[in-house]
Amino acid sequence: MSASARASVWRDLIRKPFFWGIVAIVALLALNVLKDPTYLAISINPNNGNLVGNLVDILRQAAPIMMIAIGMSLVIATGGIDLSVGSLMAVAGAVSMEFLAAAGDSGSVGVALAAVGLALLVTAILGAVNGILVAYVGLQPFIATLVLMLAGRGIAKVITGGQNTAASSDPFRWIANGFVIGIPVVFILAVAIVLVVAWVVRRSALGLMIEAIGINPKASRMAGIKPKGLLLTTYVLSGILAGIAGVMSVGSVMTVDISRTGYQLELDAILAVVIGGASLAGGKFSLSGAFVGALLIATLDKTVLFLGVSSSATPAFKAIVIVAICLLQSERVRSWFQRRKKAQTPSPRVEIVKEAAV
Question: What is the CA angle 124-116-244, rounded to 5?
């Protein structure tokens, strides 16, 4: 490959928003390595043969964020937003834990699958409520999903009777804590779901229709697209993915904490989508970018804990990192730096004039 071709590939890569997310992940890991040179070490647990290490913890922690970020990407692409995903995680956790506690069979795979299925059914229905309010009633997505964001935890409290419900189920716990060939099951499941969703929306016209709605709903309707049905579908899908994230979260501890499960994860999902290059104005989404954004959020959370950043300063630390990434992604900011660099570099003609004057 010629030098010009390599330069062209490099320029194209820099223009991809998720590239800077990868750079940020590498930078955060390097920062952790400076504090502890063994930070990236991965070992094998002699008792069960599973991989253990900080990187494995990051992959496990990123899985729920990936789920809600993928759903959020599709919703934002339509020009909407879903603020209820964190509350739906709590609802999914409440439904599954209450079902398992009532069933009492801790070793039954069928009971565990039934708990997962019931949790996803409930969150799909609640996602459909969001979709109906947005598509058919005509409420602003911010308002419609804010209502369920506030009401969702109330629904979870009603389901659990206001208590933090715990249950016992080895198959259910395996979803969040199990390993396959040494890799966390929860991460494998998250990657598989991301690949399936990406294949569906990019191998069919669904992705283009979703983006068309976000660009211009009226024009898309005149082109034969039915925006209402697609809007309903995206909010239902977002609800299901939030339910999966809720199952992953409560499965790790087998307890649902109504006030903490999924708390403020809707903000992490939005940040992951933005880091991935999606436009909050709608009409554009990148599932691979959201995937990288979720990994970055998980890495950032792990770094904050590892560096011992105080809880009061954590939001500021995360904000600084995210703002820096967004500035690096900005074409306008990069153009400004390029103009400054050119302005400070003397042209060959100026050098010739200087030499002649001497």
Answer: 60
Given a contact cutoff of 8 angstroms between Cβ atoms, the answer to whether 72 and 89 are in contact is no
pLDDT of 15-55, one tens digit each?
676 777 888 899 999 999 999 899 888 888 777 777 888 99
Under a CB-based contact definition with an 8 Å cutoff, are residues 21 and 292 in contact? yes
Q: Which residues contact 142 (CB under 8 A, 6 or more apart)?
A: 81, 83
CA dihedral 231, 237, 240, 245 (to 10 degrees): -110
- The DSSP output letter for 309 is -
SS3 of 66-127: the string is: HHHHHHHHHHHHCCCCCCCHHHHHHHHHHHHHHHHHHHCCCCCHHHHHHHHHHHHHHHHHHH
Amino acid, res. 282: G
Q: Integer distance in angstroms from the first to the last C-alpha of the chain? A: 42
Nearest C-alpha neighbor of 200 from the set 295, 70, 18, 65: 70
pLDDT higher at 42 or 245: 245
What SS3 class is residue 184? strand
User: Do residues 188 and 174 make contact, with C-beta atoms less than 8 angstroms apart?
Assistant: no
The label of the residue with tokens 């969150």 reads 123
CA distance to 75, 156, 166, 262, 353, per residue, from 287 (Å): 12, 29, 34, 21, 53
Q: Is the pTM of this model over 0.85?
A: yes
327 vs 311: CA distance, rounded Å: 25
Q: What is the pLDDT of residues 133-179, one digit of tens each?
A: 999 998 999 999 999 999 999 999 999 988 888 888 889 999 888 88
In angstroms, what CA-CA distances link 162 with 110, 116, 151? Answer: 27, 21, 14
| Exposure of 3 in the CB half-sphere (CA atoms within 13 A) | 0
DSSP labels, 16-34: SHHHHHHHHHHHHHHHHHH
Residue 322 near residue 301 (C-beta atoms within 8 A):
no
- To the nearest 10°, the Cα dihedral for 53, 306, 323, 260? 90
Element (H, E) at 51: strand 51-52
